[in-house]
Amino acid sequence: MPARAKHGAIVVLNAGSSSVKFAAFACEPDAAEVAERLLHGEIDGTGASAKLVAWKDDGTPLSGEDLMAAEAKAGHDAHALGLLFGWLKRQLPDHRVRGVAHRVVHGGERFTRPVRVTPEVLAQLEALVPLAPLHQPHNLAAIRAIAQMAPALPQIACFDTAFHAGQDWVAQAYALPRHIRDAGVRRYGFHGLSYEYIAGALPARLGPQAEGRIVVAHLGNGASLCALRARRSVATTMGFTALDGLVMGTRCGSLDPGVVLYLAREMHLSPAGIEKLLYQESGLLGVSEISSDMRTLEDSADPRAAAAIDLFVHRIGRELGSLAAALGGIDALVFTAGIGEHSRTVRQRVCEGAAWLGLELDEAANQAHAARISTPGSRVSAWVIPTNEELMLARHAQALLAAKNNR
Ligand SMILES: Nc1ncnc2c1ncn2[C@@H]1O[C@H](COP(=O)(O)OP(=O)(O)O)[C@@H](O)[C@H]1O
Ligand SMILES: CC(=O)OP(=O)(O)O
Ligand SMILES: [Mg+2]
């Protein structure tokens, strides 16, 4: 029997700090755009508490023994990702997987656009592991696991840092000696795939205002703000690493560098101990001593949970003022990612704190998770736009593969 002609598909993997999101999109070799999403899912959490869920795009839940095994191996583990990839391929019997796109958090100075992964590229990305210890090792482990299973399959790395690469020098520089800057120590910024997706989604929602002065609040387990002018990144709260800026699930956000010196000299913490403290034991978890998860904190009656949320909201307000200053004013505020899309309380408190900027919250719209949550008369509009990093990954991979085909 002649083999059936197969459609093309692109698989995408988005390994964040608290989850691995995955999806497959249909796309033909020369098409300008990816077609429909075929399936999607998520491994939420790591270790014993990891939960793995997947759905076809019509909403039908998917399951399978490999998926359960991947769950048992817990999330970021390379073997689990290998199992997951094998399972994904079997879910797509009518499709030939043409490529796998990965979110890679740090691209450093060199990678400012998506790139096909080669052994040389992988080595360069490896050197950036110290700059993104919560993410980069998992991103690269996934690439390696799939390369072992399917050595000829194109893998495409898409960078969280790339969207910010065009910022002005002043937005990127630290006031450190020049030779330190020349060694690559500067602000990079992250969550770029999310901001790029939102920038693309703005015109349909905001009309001409989309080209104005906009702050996007990506509030997930990692959290940052990005100032957009004409839909380009002008400034952002994360810096050299994804530690800077806002309070996050387990990360401290902005910190006087004198604290790091004090921890080392006076409290005798090693570099590894400081890294663990700042990346994994601080933020909402460190302040509340309860959880890094906003849902758990919002459900808790413990005053320490309330204090952690207070600090989270306070820091957003301060950083929002800073980005509004960088933009010379603000026309719109957009909420996205896990907390931004789902937490009415956080959105309400952030918007109330931004009243001085001219933002008036529409409480009913906020309660209803409406797309626009500011009043019609509000000078600054406020929005909730679900992000879609996975679609951005698929689009980048498709563009890169199509460019290769057409050469
Ligand atoms: N309904 C909800 N209410 C409040 N917070 C929520 C809700 N759903 C998800 N979150 C929060 O979103 C965060 C995870 O965001 P997400 O963007 O998925 O994370 P990641 O950075 O791993 O991609 C967690 O703090 C989680 O508690
Ligand atoms: C860069 C970053 O913090 O990513 P995430 O929010 O997915 O952890
Ligand atoms: Mg994320």
In short:
By secondary structure, the protein is of the alpha/beta class.
Describe this structure in words.
The chain is of the alpha/beta class and 407 residues long. The mean pLDDT is 92. It has an eight-stranded mixed sheet, with helices on both faces. Strands 11-10-9-12-13 form a five-stranded mixed sheet, sandwiched between helices. It folds into two domains: 7-159, ATPase, nucleotide binding domain (Nucleotidyltransferase, domain 5); 208-384, ATPase, nucleotide binding domain (Nucleotidyltransferase, domain 5), CATH 3.30.420. The longest helix is centred in the C-terminal third of the chain and has 25 residues, at 303-327. It has helices at 65-73, 78-90, 119-126, 136-149, 169-172, 178-182, 192-206, 257-265, 271-280, 283-288, 294-299, 303-327, 337-342, 344-353, 363-367, 389-405, and strands at 7-15, 19-26, 37-44, 51-56, 61-62, 95-104, 115-116, 155-159, 213-219, 223-229, 232-236, 332-336, 381-384. Helix content is 40%, strand content 19%. The protein starts with 6 loop residues before the first strand and ends with a helix. Strand 4 and strand 5 (61-62) form a beta hairpin. The chain is globular. The site of acetylphosphate has 11 residues, from loops. The record marks 191, 251 as: Transition state stabilizer. Substrate binds at residue 103. Catalyzes the formation of acetyl phosphate from acetate and ATP. Can also catalyze the reverse reaction. This is Acetate kinase. It is an enzyme of class 2 (transferase).
